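Q: Can I see a sequence and its folded structure?
A: Here is a first one.
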Amino acid sequence: MSSPEYYQANKEKAIARAKAYYEQNRDTVNQKRREKLKKGLAPKSTEYVREWRAKNPTKALALKLKKYGITVDFYKNELERQQGNCRICLEKMATPNVDHDHKTGAFRGLLCNRCNTAIGLFRDSKSNLLSAVAYLESSTSNLVQ
C-alpha cells in the first residue's frame, strides 16, 4: 500500500496522532515555525501559489476537484451539459462553483457564486429555503407604497 493510500485508509488515526503530538510539543513546534519564518522558509506564499495556478491551470483545477471526488473531464462534461449556465438561476457562470452535499460530499452540480453562496447561507436546508419562499410570497403583498 502506497503512502497516500495508507494515509486515506488511516486518515482519522493520522490526524489524531498529529494533534496529540502538537498538543504535547506545542512550544517546540511553534518555535520551529517561527525560525522557518525568519529564514524565509515559510509555507508557500500566496503569491507563489497564485503564480503556480496560473502556470498550471489544469493541475490546479484537478487538485481543487479532488476534494469533491470528481475529475477534470467530469467537470468539463458537466459544464458542457449545463451549457455554462448555473443549475439554479440559469445565468452564464463566470467561474463555476462545485456544489456538493456537505453531509455526504456528493456532487450536485455547478452553480454560479451567488446561488452557491445562497444555498450555503441557508445551511443546505430545504425547509429554510421553503420558509424563505413563503416569506417572499407573503411579504410582497405587504409592501409599503
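Q: Show me another, different protein.
A: A second, unrelated one:
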Amino acid sequence: MPLVNYSTPRKIHLETFGCTANMGDTLKLRALLRRKGHELVEEDEADLVIVNTCTVTKRTELNVLKRLRELKSAGKEVIVAGCMAAAQPELIKSGLGEEVPLVTPRDIGDAYQVGS
C-alpha cells in the first residue's frame, strides 16, 4: 500500500515528534515523497500534513493530540504516522475521526525498501 496514493503531486508538510528513530523515518518519508513527485513545503502552503508521532511520554502524546486537533480545526488534511499510529490507533481516531489515515513505522520502512 503506497503511503500517499495520489495521482497528482501534492504540497506536503512533515512534522515530527519524538526520538531519533522518528527523525530517521521522517527522512525516509521525505525521500519517498520527493521520489513520487510531491513537493515538501511549509505548513501554510500545504494541502496535506503528515505528522510523525511518538508515544514515549504522556507529555509528548498530549502535545501530539493537541497538534492533530489544531491541524484538523485549520482544515488541513492529515495523515498520522509513527509509533502512535501503531500503538494507539483508537486514541487518534477518537480525536480525529475514523477516516484519518494511519501509517506505522513498519509501513514506512517497507515502503522505503521497495521504493513505493
